[in-house]
Specification:
Elements: H1 9-17, H2 23-41, E1 44-53, E2 64-68, H3 95-102, E3 106-111, H4 145-152, E4 158-163, H5 169-175, E5 178-181, E6 201-206, H6 209-219, E7 249-253, H7 263-278, E8 282-286, H8 294-309, H9 327-338, H10 341-354, H11 359-380, E9 386-390, H12 406-410, H13 417-422, E10 426-433, E11 439-446, H14 451-463
Parallel strand pairs: 2-3, 2-4, 7-8, 7-9
Antiparallel strand pairs: 1-3, 4-6, 5-6, 5-10, 9-11, 10-11
Length: 480
C-alpha cells in the first residue's frame, strides 16, 4: 500500500473495482495510517475500530472518507469538540452519511474542529489543537481544520466539513487542498449540528477537482427532512471536467485585492489570472462595494443564530449535566463547565444582539447589509461568469498567534464570509506556495446552483498546474 498516499479517490476506487486492490485492506490501511500519523497532527477525534463500509456503488466505492465531528454517524460519538457533549452518541445518520454509505465509501472516523465550529484555526477544541501538515507549528485553519489536515496529509483521499463563514475554504487554503462550499440548500443539513442555520452548508475536501465533482454527485440533492434543502435538479458535475475555460469571463473584485493582502498571496493570484487568460478566459474588473461590511454583518447574524441553536445544550435534554440543587444552578454549572471560552463569547455576543433595545440596531441592520451583499453578487454576475479572489489574506499563521485577539482571528474570514451571506457557492484550491513552503489558496465564487462552472474552471487550472499534487514531505509515500 505504499502508493496509497499518491492516489486520487477516483483512481483508488478504479483499482478496487478492477480487483487490483482489496476494499477491506484499503479501509484498514487508511485507518491504521491515520492512527499512526495523528500523534503529530491531532486531526482526528476518533478513528473507528473498523471502517463503516457502505453497501452501495459509485465512482468512489471503497474510498476512505472522514467526517467532521458535527455530522451524525449513527452509533458513533458526536461531540462537536466540546466537553458539553462528551459521552453523547448519535442516534441516527445525517443525510450525507446515508448518501456516503449508499455510494459505497468507507467512513473511517471523525475529525477535529473548533468547538461547535466557532473558530478559524482549530485551536478551540476540547481535544486540543490540530496542526498544519506543512508546518506543525502553524494552524490548519478552521473550523474544519481536522478534515483539511487529514486530506492534506493524505490520511484519507476525501473528507467532509461544514462551512458557515469560510470553515471549509479557509482551512483548504491553509492546508493546500480543494474545499468546496456548495450553494446554500444544495446539500442537506439534516444531521448537522447547527451553528448558523441560515449560513451552514456541508461540503467536501479533496485533493483535486475530479474527486470533488464525484463527491458532489453523491452529496447533493433534495431532502424532505431538511426544509431548507432545495428541490433543484442535480447535474452530473463530472460532465464539465474537461470543458476548459475558453470564452469564460472571470471577474476580479477590486475589494478583495486591497491593502493588507499578503504580497506573496497577491503574486500567486496574479499568476492564476495569467493561467486562465492563457487558456482563453477573459479577466475583467468587477466591484462588490459592500464587502467591507461582510465580516461585521456575518458575526452578528452567525452569533445570533448560534445563541439560539445552543440553548438546547443545557444539561437537561442535551449536554453533560452538573448536578445541583436548583434548575437554574444545573443550567449555569453545566453550561459554564461544558462550553469553552470561544463558545461563551459567541453566545454572549448573539444574545446581546438579539436582546431588547439592540435587536433593531444590530441584528436587523445586519440582515439589511446581507441583502446589499447579495445584490452586489447579482450585479457582478451580470458582468462575469465566475469571480476569482484570494481565499485568505495571508498563509497559515503560527499557533497561538491570534488567540489573544479575537478581532484579528475573525478577520481570517474577510474573503469567505460574504459567499455565505449571499448563499452562493465557492471553492478554494491551491495556487502556489510561499518562500516558507506554505500553501496559498485561490477562491472561485459562482452563481447560485452553478457549482459546475467552479468545477469547470478549477479543473482547467489544475490541468495546467501541479500545486495540488504536492504532498507535505513528512506525509508522502515514504512515510507509509
Amino acid at each position: 500500500m505504499k502508493e496509497f498516499t499518491e492516489m486520487s479517490g477516483v483512481k483508488l476506487a478504479r483499482l478496487i473495482a478492477e480487483h487490483e486492490l482489496d476494499e477491506v485492506q484499503v479501509g484498514t490501511a487508511s485507518a491504521a495510517r491515520s492512527r499512526a500519523m495523528d500523534a503529530d497532527l491531532n486531526c482526528f477525534i476518533s478513528v473507528y475500530p473498523q471502517p463503516i463500509k457502505g453497501e452501495g456503488d459509485s465512482a468512489l466505492r471503497g474510498v476512505p472518507v472522514a467526517l467532521k465531528d458535527n455530522i451524525s454517524v449513527r452509533g458513533k460519538p458526536l461531540t462537536c469538540a466540546s466537553k458539553i457533549l462528551s459521552g453523547y452518541t448519535a442516534p441516527y445518520d445525517a443525510t450525507v452519511t446515508v448518501r456516503l454509505k449508499q455510494a459505497g465509501l468507507q467512513i473511517i472516523g471523525s475529525t477535529n474542529m473548533d468547538e461547535f465550529a466557532f473558530g478559524s484555526s482549530t485551536e478551540n477544541s476540547c481535544y486540543g489543537p490540530t496542526a498544519n501538515p506543512w508546518d506543525t507549528g502553524r494552524v490548519p485553519g478552521g473550523s474544519s481544520g481536522g478534515s483539511a489536515a487529514a486530506v492534506a496529509a493524505r490520511l484519507v483521499p476525501c473528507a467532509l466539513g461544514s462551512d458557515t463563514g469560510g470553515s471549509i475554504r479557509q482551512p483548504a487554503a491553509l492546508c493546500g487542498v480543494v474545499g468546496m462550499k456548495p450553494t446554500y440548500g444544495r446539500v442537506s443539513r439534516y444531521g448537522l449540528v447547527a451553528f448558523g442555520s441560515s449560513l451552514d452548508q456541508i461540503g467536501p475536501f479533496t485533493t483535486n477537482f475530479e474527486d470533488c465533482a464525484h463527491l458532489l454527485n453523491v452529496l447533493c440533492g433534495a431532502d424532505p427532512r431538511d426544509s431548507t434543502c432545495a428541490s433543484v435538479a442535480v447535474p452530473d458535475f463530472t460532465a464539465v471536467l474537461n470543458s476548459g475555460v475558453k470564452g469564460l469571463t472571470i471577474g476580479i473584485p477590486r475589494e478583495y485585492y486591497a491593502d493588507g493582502l499578503d504580497s506573496q498571496v497577491r503574486a500567486a493570484l496574479e499568476e492564476v489570472q495569467e493561467v486562465f487568460a492563457a487558456q482563453g478566459a477573459r479577466c475583467v474588473p468587477v466591484s462588490l462595494p459592500h464587502t467591507r461590511y461582510a465580516v461585521a454583518a456575518y458575526y452578528i447574524i452567525a452569533s445570533s443564530e448560534a445563541s439560539s441553536n445552543l440553548q438546547r445544550f443545557d444539561g437537561i435534554r442535551y449536554g453533560r449535566r452538573v448536578p445541583r440543587d436548583s434548575l437554574g444552578e444545573v443550567y449555569g454549572y453545566s453550561r459554564g463547565s461544558g462550553f469553552g471560552a470561544e463558545s461563551k463569547r459567541r453566545i454572549f455576543l448573539g444574545t446581546y444582539c438579539l436582546s431588547s433595545g439592540y435587536y433593531d440596531a444590530y441584528y436587523i441592520r445586519a440582515l439589511k447589509v446581507r441583502t446589499l451583499i447579495r445584490r452586489d453578487f447579482e450585479q457582478a454576475f451580470t458582468q462575469a461568469d465566475v469571480l476569482l479572489t484570494p481565499t485568505t489574506p495571508a498563509p497559515a499563521f503560527l499557533r497561538g498567534e491570534k488567540t489573544g485577539d479575537p478581532l484579528q482571528m475573525y478577520l481570517s474570514d474577510v474573503f469567505t464570509s460574504s459567499a455565505n451571506l449571499a448563499g452562493v457557492p465557492a471553492v478554494s484550491f491551491p495556487c502556489g506556495y510561499t518562500r516558507e513552503g506554505l500553501p496559498v489558496g485561490a477562491q472561485l465564487i459562482g452563481r447560485a446552483f452553478d457549482e459546475e462552472t467552479l468545477i469547470r474552471a478549477g479543473n482547467a487550472y489544475q490541468q495546467h498546474t501541479a500545486f495540488h499534487a504536492r504532498i507535505p514531505e513528512k506525509y508522502g509515500p515514504e512515510s507509509v
